[in-house]
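lol ok so funny story. i was supposed to be doing the assay writeup but got distracted and ended up predicting the structure for this chain instead. priorities right. anyway since i did it might as well share w the group, maybe its usefull for someone
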Amino acid sequence: MEILEQELRVRPGSRSLRLAQNRTLEKSFLTGQGFPVADYEVVDSKLELHNLSLPLPWIIKTATEGYDGHGQWRISDRKSIKSVLNVITGDGPWVVERIVPFMMELSVVVSISSNRNCVTYPPTENIHEDGILHISISPGRIEKSITESAQRLAREVVQSIGDSGVFCVEMFLLNNGDLIVNEIAPRPHNSGHHTIDTFSVSQYELQVRSLCDLPLVNPIRNGDSVLLNILGQEATTLLKPHVANAVMGNDYARFYFYGKESVRPGRKMGHILFTGSDNETLLKEAIETHGQISSQT
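and the output, tada:
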């Protein structure tokens, strides 16, 4: 990417990508800038886990190449360290994070221009299964004060990077109402796909505007949404006529398939977006639809 930047405008650029590709750099950056994160340690050898004073439970993450739950292992107590050592992969380093109790995971999509103009979407509430994003609810079911705090935190994180483009800042809402940063994604994000249908301007248009130095405009929400990710063999099931017809008969639902040729367990193959005026109703529809698909998979 650094070579490309010598000839082309790349946004976000190598500075952002470097952080996103290495959790140790990302954590160091966030803590160095004073942003709240979960307590963590970095280890270069798996054997160092025996000597950590970090309070349990932990989640261990590879410093590089981890995504959608891959390259992550949970340790609940010291008795389980030995068994986990046998399954941890990679050559190190690893980031060991203290697992904190949280109410929900939120994500905020931010677009920032080269002149530092910055716009944000409302926080999306995310529900994961086995470390993979399962459902995204927009707007998140949180108080206005939390919405404003999450948007402010996301803006400050992105502005501190000093790059331009579209970013997603993932964070946890703790039981005491505090927010801590989890990860930064320097790109349009899975949890922002709904912006195509439910906002006046999508995250993709904002990416183009940022890249072309066009004015950034504030996104105006025109409805609620619940996004249901289609994973692995669920996509094959959805292509069966009787399943597709049943889902397409839902007044709230719209299909998006990503055109991926190979199907792998847990791979995001597409999504169904449920749109309307009440996200509780939409969430119910999404859960029922997922049940229909799962029963046929």
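The first strand starts at residue 40 and ends at 43. Residues 144-161 form the longest helix (18 residues).
back to the writeup now i swear
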